[in-house]
Design goal:
The complex is a heterodimer of chains A (about 900) and B (about 150).
Chain A (H helix, E strand, L loop, with lengths): L4 H42 L11 E3 L2 E4 L8 E6 L2 E3 L1 H51 L10 H11 L1 H7 L4 H20 L1 H48 L1 H6 L3 H53 L5 H12 L2 H28 L21 E10 L5 E11 L3 E5 L6 H8 L7 E6 L2 E2 L12 E4 L10 H6 L46 H11 L3 H9 L11 H20 L6 E3 L11 H6 L1 E3 L13 H9 L3 H19 L20 H11 L9 H12 L3 H4 L6 H18 L6 E3 L11 H6 L1 E3 L6 H15 L3 H9 L12 H14 L4 E5 L7 H15 L9 E5 L11 E6 L2 E6 L1 H6 L3 H5 L1
Parallel strand pairs in A: 7-16, 7-17, 10-15, 15-16
Antiparallel strand pairs in A: 1-4, 2-3, 5-6, 5-8, 8-9, 11-14, 12-13, 17-18
Chain B lengths: L3 H9 L9 H10 L1 E5 L4 E3 L7 E7 L2 E7 L2 E8 L4 E2 L1 H6 L6 E4 L3 E7 H10 L1 H26 L1
Antiparallel strand pairs in B: 1-8, 2-7, 3-6, 3-8, 4-5, 4-7
Helix pairs in contact in B: 1-2, 4-5
Chain lengths: ~900, ~150
């Protein structure tokens, strides 16, 4: 990274800058010819210059190298003889040449612009990559200082203008400078005095403007910093939302952001004022020069000291001057802006103690064996107080050791040091015969898993979250097609589309058999059942063909479940979807539709206004009856809830309609009185139909839906299906013999509604459902579906307990030689903690289907220490006891003290 | 067909709700859930936390108290009985276990519903006091009998 923008641009794009300069220089003759040709066309063929004799011809396109006139003008050699043309031919030839030049010029401009654009964009993305690379290499302590939002805005927004600038960085000043020098030289040659005036004015501009700009630079700097802080603050607020809600500090946050926005406004406004003031001054200075020309030049001309022709030529030449000067000033303005931005960004990214640059690492991981020796380990915090004080111990890598002690005992520090999260320690640590510091980057991390109490997951599926511990690279299986290498990675394989997962580390060979490994680790952390639950509530993400067999098995599971329930006398617990019968535990709308909407999350709101449905209902004379049913429901509810305070908790128990809508029903009922259905307008009809549509008899118990009405609704259901047809793009109808891909797996197997008004119906049905899944060997499919569950931003769709379990599962999936666990299960209750510790230790002893491994676990609770072979007890940073758990209990009171 | 009218009839005969006006009782019935139990199914476990009580609409159940590790039947309840009311009201663990002895239909009444009702019906609060006092004196009598 370079401290100034220009050195950065020059170093990284030197060759391209020189090339583009060459191309521009090469295009100059064309520009000149384009200006020159019209004169020839007008003077020659059009006005007849040289064609006084109708047979006269002119030689065109003659190309030769001549000596300059003052050396005699001898022709040295001829490149191209040229052709002779008559007047008309000459007109056509010259005009065609003009057209050709126009096209050539346009194409060259196109090439130059595209080249510059590509150069700028490529350099910009490379700069962003390098900045991001630096973030990854920040020393860990740095992350306590920087805010994620600020880093993001720096990498994304603040360097953005650089892209447009890089292509012009050198070309523009050279080009414009050349034009200015040419015009000035011409003026100077015509008249030295006037030339000096023009030069003087330019010098004033060159001196005054940069001085004025200093303040502008300061404003730009402030603008950038305040905008960046705004981004940082907003991301902080996002992360802090639960606290803001529970402490009710939202208005304070509003005030904070409003104050920042005001500040940004003031800075920007000051900046605008300053910027346009400078522009004004600039224009003024530029306009003063011609004023001087007219006044002084005129004065000299009147006095006869200046030839009028010269004056006119000078003024004409000066016309060409302001435009490049203005452009150069604009360029300078842009340069200033971009340089400030660059410097501001670089200040943040220039940090001492960066981790070494990433180098390609071998795909294989070292084998760890031997022991871990900690000698005289001492760690101090910022204030200098000792977190660990002269700690020494030795453990075999296969041992299972618990570290206990009070919260500030030092266990956390010890584990952070061993996980290389804290590198500032004194003393010596040797792991497998090599000092901890001397293990190369990305070597040890592949053999050791660390799981702490804090959990964070990027948004992904559960499977991806588990695999995130295995993506070290280089990718083993390259993707089919490689992207063009826009980013210079310094030798790293950055093929993102490739499969980065190190399956071998997890003991698998590929994406298929790793699912069994997920099963092992998720069972160990008691997350397997949760994933199956998620799978039941998920939909099979089919690959299309080949799933027919699977779907058929789910249909068989459905039949199995219903058979089992019937045999156990529990048939009443699920009211299944029978095309010929009204399903009492579904709403009227669900009975009419009798299917699932294809788009998940779409509700039946507004169903009452569906024109096709209404047409069918009217045809069967059902619309009016359902409307009357809605009217009765509305009347009853309003009667029952009349006079109840609006904040009464009882409103929460009203399932049929949201309490806010009750006043609408009240006024509408009042307005329409006893008005008949056919005389009412569409909105009123829909209002009461909606109420009827939401009605579920066993839940709402108003007795407004009898068997006869139910049968008529079933008839309407059939009519609707006849109208819509079986292959509608919005709905899939319930079919006892078919799998419904739009419904969840659980709904497909249940194929009906659980009778929630029967005690413990849900639990009892669940048991049978589990049995049916196992009977048809579908658990694996359900599990796989659960693995595809989207865990949400930061994993927030999982509970804190699930996230901690998932963190531990991910650490286990990596098959570490040593597992470092620091209060990994702190969010769990005692019983679950005990079970999971037991299972993980069994895996560690090699009792599961993975190789044995060592464990060094910091526990918040001494209750579970008996399960470990050895206990290290830390108190106040010192190792106060070391030995098997039984031995420790006997030591006078020390375990008691910590407990 | 289960419906509100039937529930209302039952609630009206529960002593605690004696003095509650019909409109409030209707509200109670409407906002409550029906729950069906099969013989042998447990309405509540002794010692468990809960915030619900059950008004029995039909069927019968045994009230069991654990004594020396064995369940001892102390009462039988049936139509119009309100079980679990005191534990629900006072936020205490269940004092007894209640097991259905026949197919049983009950109306589940939650604490928030009950409290809402009590707040607006002073007579009901007095009625609750009367029921509580009644049970307390009976318990003291039984204790005295057991001691002697």
């Amino acid at each position: 990274m370079h401290s100034t923008l220009f050195s950065y641009i020059w170093r990284s794009t030197k060759r391209q800058q020189l090339w583009i300069l060459t191309v521009i220089l090469a295009s100059m003759p064309i520009t000149f010819l384009l200006l020159d040709l019209p004169k020839h066309i007008v003077n020659g063929p059009i006005q007849g210059g040289g064609f006084q004799d109708p047979r006269a011809t002119e030689r065109l396109f003659h190309l030769s190298v001549k000596l300059p006139d003052y050396f005699g003008g001898h022709q040295l050699f001829t490149i191209f003889e040229g052709y002779d043309f008559h007047r008309l031919g000459s007109l056509i030839a010259l005009s065609s040449a003009f057209l050709l030049l126009v096209m050539l010029n346009g194409l060259l401009k196109l090439y130059i612009n595209i080249y510059k654009g590509r150069l700028g964009e490529k350099s910009l993305q490379q700069l962003r990559y390098e900045l991001f690379d630096r973030v990854l290499r920040f020393p860990l302590g740095e992350f306590r200082r920087v805010k994620s939002g600020e880093i993001a805005t720096m990498i994304k927004d603040e360097v953005e203008p650089l892209g447009g600038f890089i292509g012009d960085a050198f070309v523009q000043p050279v080009f414009l400078g050349g034009q200015i020098v040419t015009a000035l030289a011409f003026i100077l040659l015509q008249n030295a005095a006037l030339g000096l005036i023009a030069l003087g004015m330019l010098a004033v501009q060159a001196v005054v403007i940069p001085r004025l700009r200093r303040k502008q630079i300061e404003y730009s700097r402030q603008r950038q910093i305040t905008a960046r802080q705004l981004a940082g603050r907003i991301s902080e607020v996002m992360d802090d939302i639960p606290n803001i809600r529970t402490n009710d500090t939202a208005n304070y946050q509003r005030a904070d952001i409003a104050a920042r926005l005001t500040q940004i406004f003031l800075i920007r406004f000051a900046l605008y004022r300053w910027k346009f003031s400078i522009k004004f001054l600039n224009n003024l200075l530029a306009q003063i020069t011609p004023f001087m020309f007219y006044l002084l030049g005129g004065y000299f001309a009147i006095r006869g000291q200046l030839d009028i022709g010269q004056l006119v030529a000078v003024i004409a030449a000066y016309k060409d001057l302001p435009s490049p000067v203005k452009e150069l000033i604009d360029w300078d303005q842009q340069r200033l802006d971009v340089e400030v931005k660059y410097r501001q960004v670089m200040e943040q990214f220039t940090i001492d103690g960066l981790e070494p640059a990433a180098v390609p690492v071998p795909g294989t991981r070292p084998v760890l064996s031997g022991d871990l020796v900690v000698s005289n380990l001492t760690v101090s915090d910022f204030s200098g107080s000792r977190l660990l004080d002269d700690v020494s111990f030795r453990m075999e890598l296969g041992e299972r050791v618990a570290v206990v002690g009070p919260a500030k005992g030092g266990a956390e520090t010890l584990l952070n040091v061993l996980a290389r999260l804290n590198l500032s320690y004194g003393g010596h640590i040797r792991l497998a015969g090599c000092a901890l510091r001397d293990w190369g980057p990305s070597t040890l991390e592949r053999c050791i898993s660390f799981a702490g109490p804090d959990t964070y997951f990027p948004q992904s599926s559960i499977a991806d979250a588990l695999l995130s511990g295995l993506r070290h690279g280089p990718p083993a299986l390259p993707a089919g097609e490689k992207q063009a290498g826009i980013i210079d990675s310094g030798g790293l394989d950055l093929d993102f589309e490739a499969d980065w997962v190190d399956y071998a580390q997890a003991g698998a060979t590929g994406p298929q058999d790793i699912v069994a490994r997920y099963g092992t680790v998720l069972r160990a952390v008691e997350l397997y059942g949760d994933i199956v639950r998620l799978g039941l509530n998920g939909r099979i993400t089919g690959d299309g063909e080949g799933d027919a067999d699977l779907e058929q098995r789910f249909v068989q599971a459905r039949q199995q479940l219903h058979r089992n329930l019937a045999e156990a006398g529990m048939a009443d617990l699920v009211e299944s979807f029978d095309p010929a019968r009204y399903n009492r535990r579904s709403s009227v709308a669900e009975n009419l539709l009798f299917g699932t909407l294809r788009k998940p999350g779409l509700s039946l709101d507004g169903f009452a206004s569906n024109p096709r449905l209404r047409e069918v209902l009217s045809r069967l004379d059902l619309a009016e009856d359902l409307f009357e049913m809605g009217r009765t429901i509305a009347r009853t509810i309003l009667e029952v809830f009349e006079g109840l305070a609006p904040d009464s908790p009882l409103f929460a128990r009203l399932a049929l309609v949201s309490p806010e809508r009750l006043p609408i029903y009240s006024t509408t009922l009042h307005r329409i009185g006893k008005g008949r259905y056919r005389y009412l307008d569409e909105a009123d009809r829909a209002l009461f139909l909606e109420l009827a549509f939401a009605y579920v008899e066993p839940r709402d118990r108003l007795g407004v839906l009898d068997a006869a009405l139910g049968e008529r609704i079933v008839a309407a259901r059939h009519a609707i299906q006849a109208v819509v047809g079986p292959n509608d793009e919005r709905v899939i109808f319930h079919d006892p013999a078919a799998y419904n891909p739009a419904a969840t797996i659980q709904d497909n197997i249940l194929f009906g509604r659980i009778a929630l008004d029967v005690a413990q119906a849900e639990t009892r049905v669940r048991e049978r459902l589990d049995q049916a899944i196992d009977a048809l060997d579908l658990r694996d499919t359900v599990f796989r579906t659960g693995l595809a569950f989207d865990i949400g931003n930061g994993g927030r769709r999982l509970t804190a307990v699930q996230r901690q379990k998932l963190t531990l599962a991910r650490a286990l999936l990596r098959r570490p030689a040593l597992l470092l666990a620091h209060r990994t299960l702190s969010a769990l209750d005692q019983t679950s903690q005990a079970t999971i510790i037991e299972r993980v230790l069994a895996l560690a002893r090699g009792e599961g289907d993975m190789p044995p491994f060592g464990v060094l676990a910091a526990l918040g609770d001494t209750r579970f220490t008996d399960r470990f072979e050895r206990i290290l007890m830390l108190d106040d940073g010192r190792l106060v006891a070391d030995g098997p758990p039984e031995g420790l209990r006997d030591k006078s009171g020390s375990l008691m003290k910590v407990a | 067909m289960n419906n509100l009218k039937e529930d209302l009839e039952v609630l009206r005969r529960v002593p605690i709700f004696d003095s509650v006006d019909p409109a409030s009782l209707r509200l109670l019935a409407f906002t409550s859930q029906r729950m069906m139990f099969e013989p042998g199914q447990v309405l509540m476990h002794q010692g468990a936390e809960s915030d619900e009580g059950y008004v029995i609409i039909s069927g019968s159940a045994d009230v069991l108290v654990e004594a020396g590790g064995l369940p001892v039947k102390i009462a039988e309840v049936g139509r119009h009985d309100f079980v679990g009311d005191i534990a629900m009201l006072c936020n205490r663990p269940r004092a007894a276990t209640v097991v259905a002895t026949s197919p049983l239909d009950a109306l589940v009444i939650a604490r928030d519903q009950f409290m809402e009702l009590a707040e607006h019906t002073p007579h009901m609060a007095i009625e609750i006091m009367r029921v509580l006092a009644d049970r307390l004196s009976r318990a003291i009598q039984e204790l005295a009998r057991a001691r002697s």
